[in-house]
Amino acid sequence: MRGVLTGFWVIAVVIAVGYALGRSGRIGDNGREVLTRLAFHVATPALLFTTLARADLSVILSGKLLVTACATAAVSGVFVAVAAVRRWGVGAGTIGALCSGYVNAGNLGIPIAVYVLGDASLVAPVLLFQQIVATPVALTVLDLSRPDRQRGGLVRQLLTPLRNPVAVGSLSGVLVSASGLRVPGPVMDPLTLIGNMSVPAVLLAFGISLCGATLPGRGTDRGPVLLSAALKAVGQPLIAWALAAGPFGLGGHDLLDVVVTSALPAAQNLYTYASRYGVAERLARESILLSTIAAVPVLVVIAALLG
Prior knowledge:
By secondary structure, this protein is mostly helical. 74% of the residues lie in helices and 0% in strands. The chain contains 14 helices and no strands. The longest helix is centred in the last third of the chain and has 26 residues. The N and C termini lie close together (11 Å).
């Protein structure tokens, strides 16, 4: 259980530092907004580019990734369907769908993969799928649904992902990796340094956002918050287990890999996306918090049963 506890401890400490900064007011009233914009426009695109430019894209075609993709689509689809019926809106439906199936494969998934699964590369397929497919699609939906966006023709709408810095960083990294080009050190090193700011900035901004926040799962957003957190913490790993052990015929360590990665909580950078677009911020913050808390006992049970 060392990996589970280590990963959550690191995240909790950085979020606590952000909370303390927010309470003290030492970085001003706009500290959270500055960190969010820094992460969204600069640090996260650099991190995604450097990660994907060095990645082996062949791992995308693995059977385990298909299980993860199907489980992600299933829980996200459930949330979107409920959001449509309850008329929660496109923004809330998109953010809630992300919180239901977009796992924290980076800063939490890597240490858990190392200590629980014994191999950090096991989270690479999930990381690539989320960066190449899930993120560009979701951010394009958010871009197109903005009431203040400039309307244009079909070509302009199709080019929406190319105007989003996160999507541009991901797609650029994929192109470099697919072409086999090697980015020179004088170019890659500064980008790596900038990208290293992404996770701390996101966690600090998340911690600041908790200042003055009410207990999660209350208020007008109670339904979407509880639904997305339940889908993420329980629904996604259960679906992943059923698919892996059934139609895909996985067992042993492969089964454990799939279920553990699916049980990871919602990623903190989803709050950055919600804050950047000004939609469903409370839903993102509270769903991430609840799924992170719930992931501890869930991962312990999975490791005990399948490990």
